[in-house]
Amino acid sequence: MVDKQVLRLIGRTTHERLSRLLGNMCNAQNGNGSKWSNEQRDMVAAMAIFFSSAGYPTGLTAYMILNLKRGEPEAVHSLYSRYLETLEFKDTWQEQHDPSILFPNSPYVDLSQPKEPQVDQYEDEVLEQEQDAESRSNLPIVFPHIILCSIAAHALQEDFVGAITTILRTGTRISRAQIISVATQLPKSLGRSTIEYAHRLNTARLVARPGSLKMYLTDLANDRADKTITALYQSIVTELTRRNPWLTVNPAKLNDRTPILLPGETWGRFLKCFLMCRQLPMAGQVWDDLNRFGVVPTVATWISLLEGYGHLRLGDQLLTAWKLMRGEGIEPDAIAYLAIIDGLTRAKLPNEALAYFLEFRKGLKPAQFKDSITRHVHNTMVTGLLLNDALQKANIILDLMRRDQPAPDIVTYNMFMQHHARKGELKELASVLEAVDKAKLRGDAVTFSLLLGALLKVREDAQQIVFDLMRKQGIKPDVVIYTDIIHHLMLQRTPRSFTAALEVLREIEQDTSGDVAPNVITYTAVLSGILRATWMEAGTLEEWRQDITRRISERGIRLTTTTYHRLIGVALENPEWQGVQLAMLYYREMLMKDKVQRDTWYVLLHALMRREQWTLADEVLVDMKKAGFVPQHSLERLVASIRARRAYRGRSHYTEDDI
Questions:
Q1: Which spans of this chain does UniProt mark as PPR repeats (predicted)?
Q2: Using one digit for the tens of pLDDT, what is the confidence trace for 436-476?
Q3: Does the global pTM surpass 0.70?
Q4: Of 16, 189, 233, 545, which has fewest CB within 10 angstroms of its CB?
């Protein structure tokens, strides 16, 4: 077929069938039958690579495993390199691959036309926790089983650094189930080595991509996944203490055998994560390890410590950490002052916070007063004072900003409005509005939603007052502004703000001018607010949800896939069973309307796995199979994790614990 240049005539079904046939032929070579000649092996390799690059890796995986069993790692490396090379020239599975790569000795290959390599545009894995957009944007996605065979070849040669190089040149991540699948087909000792390598490579991948590590740790800390954070941290420390480590904390020690640097800020991220998870002993261990490995804490490390203590409202520890930092000769920057001011006000120590704020202002140079971070520090101080009911001192800061810079912005005034609205102080609220007008600032959606929420308690014409004020400021209310107001009112999560939001919705629903009408985004904001109204009785919540759904239908508005994803995500914020029920309700609506997409499966399955709702997760997997959807990349790994939730039985001498 190469000679006749008809490779493009092979269809998808034939690709798969022939790849499986090659796999069976390779498995048969494990017996006592005659072995292939070199010419036959070359032909099998070429066909296996061709079919795998078209999307069917069974043949290539089997042939690589055959070479591993024969103790020929270099043959595996050669196959893997040729496979990667074909990916660089591949446009889609339907198009002709460059036969000069697959069959370099064919006399019928036409080399007269130059080929321009193109990198595949793979699906954007927006929900991949460990994605690092900068480092992975142009990396090929290799089939997990193929890259695992390459890793096994490195394990056979005891070359972990080579395995690191291999894994970092792809955008592929490997699941536990995939590791077990390959390891069970190898000799027992090599299988165990492959499992060990794969586990260590997951650590290497994260450390080598600081952006990925940062996002991953942030998500883990938000989920309070302290056990996972601890396991990852301990695996990093273990690698640092190996006899021949591939990882170093010293840039001067980077070389071909130690190719990865552990950045100083990584220690700070672990420190903050452990504090957020209330794992004070582990936070102390991080600090001890800093000294053990000779890492000098930077200002960023100290800031992480301050932010962690602030999150826990540990005022005494905050003050001690600050003194230690200054004792080490570290000069705090604006972010450090921001951390201690915010932390002390959280810990109900506003006077101490004020002292550091004044110290910060005293050290500012004239040009720094115009920096956005300087205003942020001032606004944080104002917020902290107001949260501690220190209104008089907050007003002093406001006067200071008016007189000496940085000039207050609408965010500054919104904080005062929020304080007075919370206390029902309408006269003071009006005074703040006058100050906004005097400063020639324009209110935003937060301003008007706070005002509306406060006025609705005492005035029946509250909406008209707010809308008149908007027009006075030159703001013509449109559907975008109305929707923003509804959104911010719903975020207040009180019966009064809920009522106010529905009143705004009624206002635009009844508009007869033709200039304003609610759209799908407006109704999404309303439905999201209803789903978040956990203070409401379940029956009442469902009545409101159905009522808004009816209004949407009457207006002929169709919920988009994005809207459904938003509603599913908001419903799953509810930790009670009701949240799962509502999420599944919207998912089934999507299923009936044929709106389910890859991201739908991912969001839902990820949440169901986190909540350990295995029965519902199994139902979703059945739906996926009925739809003929084949999961790939991060979704494939998620599905594998769900299926592997129970102990591995019956097919192997390995278990998931081996990983």
A1: 298-332, 597-631
A2: 888 888 877 777 777 777 776 777 666 677 777 777 777 77
A3: no
A4: 189
